[in-house]
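To assess whether the prediction recovers the assembly geometry, we first specified each molecular entity separately, as shown.
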Amino acid sequence: MRKIFESSDSMRVGHYQSMLESDGIQTFVKNLNQSSLMGEIPFAEVFPELWIVNDSDHEQALRLLDSYKHSASGNAADWICPKCGEEVPKELSQCWSCGSAQLPAE
Ligand SMILES: [Zn+2]
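The predicted structure of the complete assembly is given in tokenized form:
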């Protein structure tokens, strides 16, 4: 077993876990519940940790996390529709509300 990721953001740990699991990698999360107590244990901060069960999956898991981080940073953030002003998830290239296309980045 190997730890592959840790973060104070338990949502992100959960997201990475489901991403790895959907690629057939067995994982488990440590310390998920303690994170809500962090404010009460100032000298022993415990972050949620994402572990993989099989060491042989380690490289594949790292690649998956890497490619995810790259795609996330390369396509920075949600965008605002120029026509109706709605916030559109970065995964969409058209506004979910009015169908306007995203303007090319300047
Ligand atoms: Zn729109």
